[in-house]
Amino acid sequence: MADNSDIGAHHVIVKGDRAYGGYFDAGAVVYSVGGDGALDLISSLSWAERSGGHPHTHTALPLGDRKLLVVTDEAIEPDCKGARKDIHLVDISDETRPKEISRFPVPVGDYCSRGLRFGPHNLHENRPGTFSSDRIVFATYFNAGLRVYDTGDPLHPKEIASYVPEAPARQQAIQLNDVLVGADGLIFVTDRVRGGLYILRRV
User: Fold this and answer.
1) Do the Cβ atoms of 112 and 93 come closer than 8 Å?
2) Are 86 and 70 in contact (CB under 8 A)?
3) What pLDDT does 203 receive?
4) CA-CA distances (angstroms) from residue 8 to 27, 50, 150, 152?
5) Cα–Cα–Cα angle for 192, 49, 41, rounded to 5 degrees
């Protein structure tokens, strides 16, 4: 791991007696959750060497009971500087030895020349009362907008939809940041700079 690594909890999702987290440059982590809320580390998985020492892992989302985690590494630098950040699919059937089994397709287009950040950020987290799926994944991708993936074949995730709005006034490129999908089919997506809130419908 690089001497200037950034280590710390970025985001944690709790499911039953397990907690799954993005831990910046330490990658994805799996914890057991005790009755008193105490966390015990079960395992971690990082691809720091492949990502120039700084994967900046953001979110680890369990896909229902499939023993799979969707893990995003947050794009930090503008204009595609630094190592590419990916969305990973991780097999946790053996929680003590998580392993990456595939990576999601990278959006195709001139995104590196559009400016600001290009790469993954956050996921719809299947929170109670919202749309929930152990197969369909909604991911924000900064200037590549909102991407939707099907993980039915975990070795070959595929993109099935996308939405890339025009850049807001006085902003070089769109920067879609967070997403929540309602049980009623409405999709709420925010831009982290000037774009505000976008409301879409799932069809």
Assistant:
1) no
2) no
3) 84
4) 10, 19, 30, 32
5) 75
- How far apart CA 178 and CA 88 sit, in angstroms, is 18
Return d(Cα 65, Cα 49) in angstroms, integer.
30
Residue ranges of the chain whose pLDDT lies below 50: none
The C-alpha atoms of residue 122 and residue 2 are separated, in whole angstroms, by 24
Residue 8 to residue 44: CA distance in whole angstroms: 13
Rg (CA), the chain: 16
Q: What is the identity of the amino acid at 20?
A: Y
Q: Which domains does the chain have, with CATH numbers?
A: 7-201 (2.130.10.10)
Render the chain in DSSP notation, one character per residue: --TT--EEEEEEEEETTEEEEEEETT-EEEEEE-TTS-EEEEEEE--TTTTTT---EEEEEE-TTSSEEEEEE---SBTT-SSPP-EEEEE-SSTTS-EEEEEPPPPPSSGGGT-SBBS---B----TTB---SSEEEEE-BTT-EEEEE-SSTTS-EEEEEE-PPPPTT-SS--EEEEEEBTTSEEEEEESSS--EEEEE--
Question: How many residues are present in the chain?
Answer: 203
Residue 189 main-chain phi, psi, to 5 deg = -130, 135
Predicted TM-score (pTM) of this structure = 0.94
Question: pLDDT for 126-155, tens place per residue?
Answer: 999 999 999 999 999 999 999 999 999 999
List the beta bridge partners of residue 118.
142
